[in-house]
Write a structure and sequence with these properties.
single chain, about 200 residues, alpha/beta, three-stranded mixed beta sheet, 5 helices
């Protein structure tokens, strides 16, 4: 019990510190870092070969993923973006950024309320997160939506995290149900996670 409480406190502190650092990024420096990360991502064979991708829409100080979404749609890929309904997350296919509306939380989300992806056409998930470590562990925002969704739908495709260098830590406190990423792309490095099972 004490160990679990300690883990929760560590996670909460890490989350708070990293988000604060991200929120304080200079807008010009952030734009340059975003471009570097996005370019590396779009040059990757995984992205180039993907037919269908799940990708979140960057919010606040997150990396601006709208550039990727536009490119993916223009390249004829199937693009699915998340929406949280009550306590569940669904992924809905979009054909344009105009298929999105602003939620009551100020977050862009797709119209609709039911996942409509074809698991056989899905090749890539771009995973959001506050922090990551070199073993592929991920610290999310605390809702557990992605872990729950991936486990329920038994989705096994490649999982990539887009991250600033300072979000990559040596070691994160994790729990058994936490799902790892396969690759982390930052402005300065590409971390390929070996034997990620």
């Amino acid at each position: 019990m004490k160990k679990l409480l300690y883990k929760k406190i560590i996670k909460k502190e890490t989350r708070k510190n990293i988000i604060k650092k991200r929120d304080e990024l200079d807008i010009i420096a952030k734009g340059a870092m975003d471009n570097e990360i996005i370019e590396k991502f779009m040059m990757s064979e995984t992205y180039k070969n993907a037919r269908g991708i799940f990708i979140y829409i960057g919010f606040g100080s997150e990396i601006n993923t709208k550039i990727i979404i536009k490119d993916a749609l223009n390249s004829g890929k199937e693009v699915y973006v998340p929406k949280v309904i009550k306590k569940d997350m669904v992924f809905i296919k979009i054909d344009s950024l105009e298929n999105l509306v602003t939620s009551s939380y100020g977050i862009l989300e797709p119209i609709g309320d039911k996942s409509d992806f074809d698991v056989n056409k899905l090749d890539l998930i771009v995973m959001p997160g506050v922090a990551f470590d070199r073993e592929g562990n991920r610290l999310g925002y605390g809702g557990g939506y992605y872990d729950k969704f991936l486990e329920q739908n038994q989705i096994e495709c490649k999982k990539i995290a887009l991250s600033y260098d300072f979000q990559v830590l040596e070691k994160l406190e994790v729990e058994e149900h936490d799902i790892k990423v396969d690759l982390i792309i930052t402005e300065n490095q590409v971390i390929n996670i070996k034997n990620n099972k």
